[in-house]
Design brief:
Elements lengths: L2 H8 L13 H19 L10 H18 L10 H13 L8 H12 L4 H14 L2 H17 L6 H4 L5 H8 L7
Length: 180
């Protein structure tokens, strides 16, 4: 598996509509094709990918996006988020994001939006604002407000075996409730 294998599939016209609207079939396809790659990345065996813009982006997608599909509804879906943020932060620090298209840059910044730490949420909003990624700014602010309000994402509670507060339960059952 190479960074190009990841990027060519993830940014294909066939897959773009599935980015935030997956299907069980697509989740199964990713599991079949990339589970071993995800496990290797989680063990740090693909860290050398992060030397190039393409490799860093592919590694972030493997660590941040693919687990959400491969392990949907399981705690493992969130297990490599911290690693994805480390890769993304290092890539940004080195200016690798400047060599990316807006769409690619958005995926490099997403690990900060997925964090339950308010500081990461603030960074997410700042990154998307500075890049002029208007559609993403709306979602970054939305995620930040959830974390600001609850200190975490309530929709993850059941998956992670956490008890929900009455306020979180009311939020989740409301029309504004974010379900992931």
């Amino acid at each position: 598996m190479s960074p190009d294998d990841v990027l060519s599939l993830w940014f294909s016209e066939r897959v773009k509509p599935l980015w935030f609207n997956s299907t069980p079939e697509f989740d199964a396809e990713l599991r079949e094709r990339f589970d071993d790659t995800l496990r290797a990345a989680a063990r740090g065996e693909l860290d050398d990918w992060a030397r190039t813009p393409e490799g860093a982006l592919a590694l972030v997608i493997v660590l941040d996006q693919l687990p959400l599909n491969i392990y949907r509804g399981r705690p493992e879906a969130f297990a490599t988020e911290a690693a994805s943020r480390r890769v993304a932060a290092a890539a940004i620090e080195r200016g690798l994001d400047q060599a990316m298209t807006d769409t690619q840059r958005a995926f490099l910044y997403l690990p900060f939006m997925h964090s339950e730490a308010l500081a990461d949420q603030e960074r997410s909003v700042t990154l998307f604002e500075q890049a002029g990624l208007t559609d993403n700014v709306k979602w970054a602010r939305h995620h930040r407000e959830i974390v600001r309000r609850f200190g975490r994402f309530p929709h993850r509670n059941a998956i992670l075996g956490r008890d929900s507060t009455p306020e979180e339960l009311a939020y989740l059952s409301s029309e504004e409730g974010f379900r992931g």
